[in-house]
Design goal:
GO terms for molecular function: DNA binding. The protein has 12 helices and 5 strands. By secondary structure, it is an alpha+beta fold. The protein has 2 domains: 65 residues, 434 Repressor (Amino-terminal Domain), CATH 1.10.260; 167 residues, Beta-Lactamase (2-Layer Sandwich), CATH 3.30.450.180. The termini are far apart. It has a 5-stranded antiparallel sheet.
Length: 250
Amino acid sequence: MHTVGELLRQWRHRRRLSQLDLAIAADVSARHVSLVETGKSNPSAAMVLRLADQLDVPLRDRNTLLLAAGFAPRYAERPLDDTALSAARNAVERVLRAHEPYPALAFDRRWDIIMTNRAVDPFLAEVDPELLRPPVNLLRLGLDPRGLARLVVNHADVRAVFRARVRRQLAAAPDPGLAALYEDLLAPAAGDAPADSDVMIHMIVRHAGRELRLFSTITTFGTPQDITLDEVAIESYYPADPQTAAHFEG
């Protein structure tokens, strides 16, 4: 088991910061950072969280740091339907509903879908029911030939976008489950190339006899204090041309 100092050093290296960089950001001495990392100084819980904040450590991993330092976890992890998270769940539902008639969905750190709006339903109707057994994974849904992959015209581009996003996610916060999913679905293969676009990558979907061109944005909670909320993302899809807009608005 790693000590808190070893874990903090790993996060510092991951963020490509020197001890001096971290010390300045956290308003402590570089010597103190060095002593913590080498185990010659036992940091308080407040200091652990102070350094973790400057290193942008996810809440789940901040609990790991606290445990390694001998303290109780600080952040709870409740299901989104927990009473304590009702306001947050309502906010997610409102965002999804407000985005109609365009598709939008919410998913967690491993890309398991938490919630969708009604505009997603027509696309799911064309998916193999086996892929819709909970938990429904957005990566599998988008890349499996039994899922949406057979509807996506520019599948290679979309796969490249997924790969880049998951690689950035793993670089920011390693996760064994997500890493296994990456190896299963997204590991580079012969002939793979980066997606090519002057502005942004559109997902081109063949649906209802039309080719729909969509782009997406990601929304997350700001300043969450619960692990579930820290890991929720909402992906909202927008029409990239008038024909696609007319399809959804008609």
